[in-house]
């Protein structure tokens, strides 16, 4: 993939961009083999990749510059701003939105936040697109509510110009630190969630719920988990760290009893809405801490699927899983290093199969799916 920003030395986020994707996949597989060294793997499945460019469904843009000439992109470590609206990882559908947002910032009087001076209002613009119908969610991350009246007054013109903006909100992040979002979300549209669909499974994207940024590879990840589960004698399943329910909703059948646990209430609202749309009566999603839920339960399922953040599931949950000993564990990880550490804390299990998903092309990062079977 060619990137003018990389060639000019303006952005180095895609550190592997100069290598063909085939070489990138080989290096990632070598890394995974190294991390799982000493852990017998019965089946190494072929890695899964997707498009090299235009694959992201989300842009997280730092707003800098002036109110008259805002820059959308990032800040270098020395504080120098970089406009990334031409990043080839974004689909072509993002370009007209970025182009319209720059004059809109001036029209709405949203002064970009200056980190060094701790002044200004607009910190970030967060844009998400649904591949189902091209609908978009736009979030303005503001330092305070001071500009909300101006923002509301200016929005009708933007909405007329960009009818694909289905969900618009203001997130209030008052802390003078590089934190992406705050707790307060103020909706500026009646619609509050984007409809999405992977593999015939309805999903929903809300402002403060995690959703994968590479839809093509995420779709393959979910369908693979579903295929693996369908080969197992499972009627009772936990989906821990479930997010919007992507894994559980794919794996569930009308007969299966499934409990999904995620600490973010917004994500649980999405998962519950999807379960209702599918007409599945035995799916129950709860906004709880996954480790606390598991260790307090005495109703042992046949399968536990975990999809933790980068830190992994940790020693406490590994210890409990070892003691409760479900017949099967499926581990989905965006950090194979912590996954390998966790699997070593599950000595009663063997790795039946493992598969790499290239969720983050042109970087060293990747996603992994592993099926563990009780010995």
What does this structure look like?
The structure is a single chain. With 375 residues, this protein is of the alpha/beta class. The protein is 29% helix and 27% strand. It is globular, with a radius of gyration of 22 Å.
**Structural classification:** alpha/beta
Which consecutive residue ranges, at least 5 long each, have pLDDT under 50? none
Number of helices: 10
Q: Can you tell me the overall shape?
A: globular
Largest sheet: 8 strands, mixed
Element order: H for helix, E for strand: HHEEEEHEEHEEEEHEHEHEHEHEHEE
Beta-strand percentage? 25-35%
Strand tally is 17
Query: What value does the Rg take, in angstroms?
Result: 22 Å
Task: Give the tally of structural domains.
Answer: 2
CATH fold-level name of the largest domain = Rossmann fold
Widest β-sheet, arrangement of strands: 1-16-17-15-14-11-12-13
What CATH architecture label of the largest domain applies?
3-Layer(aba) Sandwich
Mean pLDDT: 96
Reading off the top of the CATH hierarchy, the class of the largest domain is best stated as Alpha Beta
**Fraction of residues in helices?**
25-40%
What is the terminal separation in angstroms? Answer: 45 Å
What would CATH call the homologous superfamily of the largest domain? Vaccinia Virus protein VP39
Secondary-structure map:
Blueprint: H1 4-7, H2 21-35, E1 41-44, E2 58-65, E3 70-75, E4 81-83, H3 95-107, E5 122-129, E6 136-142, H4 148-161, E7 165-172, E8 184-187, E9 194-198, E10 201-205, H5 215-230, E11 236-240, H6 246-251, E12 257-262, H7 265-278, E13 283-287, H8 290-296, E14 303-306, H9 314-324, E15 328-333, H10 336-343, E16 349-357, E17 367-374
Parallel strand pairs: 1-16, 6-7, 11-12, 11-14, 12-13, 14-15
Antiparallel strand pairs: 2-3, 2-5, 3-4, 5-6, 7-8, 9-10, 15-17, 16-17
